[in-house]
Write a structure and sequence with these properties.
This protein is of the alpha/beta class and 454 residues long. The protein folds into three domains: 82 residues, Orthogonal Bundle (Arc Repressor Mutant, subunit A); 115 residues, Aspartate Aminotransferase, domain 1, CATH 3.90.1150.10; 219 residues, 3-Layer(aba) Sandwich (Aspartate Aminotransferase, domain 2), CATH 3.40.640. It has 16 helices and 17 strands. α2 crosses α4.
Amino acid sequence: MQDTQFVKAIAPWLSPTDGPIRAHLALAIRQAIGTGHLPAGTRLPPERSLAAALHVSRPTISAVVEDLRASGMLTSRQGSGSWVTEGHTQRRPTVPFVELLQASGSIDLAAATAPDASLLPPMRVENSDFLGVEPANGLTPLGMEQLRRNIADRHRYDSSHSPDPTLDQVIMTSGAHHALGLIIAACAQRGSSILVEETTYGGLIDMIHANGCVPVGVPRDDDGPIPEVLSSLLRTHRPSLTILVSSVHSPTGTVSSAHRTHALAKILTAAQTQVVLDETYADLEFSPTTRVLANELGNKAIRVGSLSKTLWTGLRTGWIIASPTICTDIARRRFQQFDLGPSIPSQLFALQALEHFDVVVQKRRAQLIDRSSWLTDALAVKFPDWSLSRVDGGLALWAEVHMDGNTFAKQASERGVAVLPGSACRADGQPTPHIRLCFDRPIDVLEAALDRLG
C-alpha cells in the first residue's frame, strides 16, 4: 500500500492531539483494521516513508508497529515488512451477547449476576395493591409516580452544579439493558458514531449495531478512559452519544481515581455530545465514594441505573434520569417502537425492595468483598502466570490468561465451566487474551469451578 493510501485509510481516526502520539497513532491503526479500512493482508509502507508521511519520528513508527505486532494485529518478517494479520477485521458475532451468558449444564461464571434471589427482603403483593394503582387501568408509560419519586430522591447530586432530579426526569424501564436501548433508539441518528470504552458491556455493542450506528472504542488504562484520546476522538467523530460505564467499570471491576474523573468531566462538559452514564454497578463499589462524574456533569448527562446487579436480575427494574425534554423524546420513541410501559407487579416489588435497599446492599458488599478476595487469591496460586485487574467493586474480575480468550472459554466449557471471553466486551469485537469471571457465587461453587479448570 502506498503512503498516501495508508494515511487516507487511518485518517478518520486521526486529529491533532496533545496526548501521546504513539498511543494515538496505534489507536487509529487498530480502528482502521477493526473496521476493515485496512483489510487482512494489507502490507504497510516501509517505516521510514510512513514516518515521513505522518510527520512523526521513525522510532515512533517502530514502536507502534511493535505494539500492534505484540497484540497480534500485525505480522512482520525480516526483509518482507509488516502486514495486517488474518482474522482482525471487525466482525460482530452472530450470537447476541446475552446468549453467551447461557450456561446450562455448566458452573456459570460467565453471567455477572447474583446467583439467586436469596438476599431479597420478604415481599408480598396482594390484589388490593393493584386496586390502589393510579391510573386504575395500570397503564403507566413512564412508570409509577411513587417509584419514580423514590428513584429521583436516591439520585440527588452531591454538589450545586445542577438541581436535583425531579419526578418528570425519571423513566422506569425493564432493566439497564432496556434503558440503554431506548436511549440509543431515541437519541442517536442512524449511521452516527457512538463513543464507548474500548472494553465495555457487550450488550451495549449489540444494541449500537442493531440501531445502525458505529461504536468507536476509547482506549483505557488502569485508571479508566484516557482523557487525551477521548478529547481527540470527540473532535474527530462528533459522536451523537458518548456512553461510559460510570463508577464501577464493567467488565474490569475498577473505579477511576478522582483526578482522572475530574479530567474526564472537564472534557465532556465542553464537548458537543450527549453523555450517558451507566451506573448499574455504582452501589456495589467496595469503598463507596462520591459519584464525581455524575455530580460534575449534572443534567448534561443521562443516567442509567438498575436493581438487577444490586438485588436480583429477575426483578427487571431499571431507570433513566434525564432532562424533561429528553425524557419526552425517549418516551415517544418507546411508545412507537418498544412497549407501553413497565409491568405493575415488577414496580410494586421494586418499591418494597427499595425499603430495605441500604441494608441489603451493605450485606451484598461484604459478601462480594469476601468472594472476590477468595477468588483472586485462589487464581494467583492456581494460575500464577495470569494477570488480574484489581477489583474495586462489582460482581466480576478481569483476567489476562496469556492465550486467546475465546479459545480459553471454549476449553473451559468443555470442562463444564462457563466464562465470558474478553472479545465479547470489546467495542471492535477483536480477540483478546482476557476473560471475565463472576465471583458472586458461593465459595464452594468457585472452588469446584477452579478444580474443573485444572
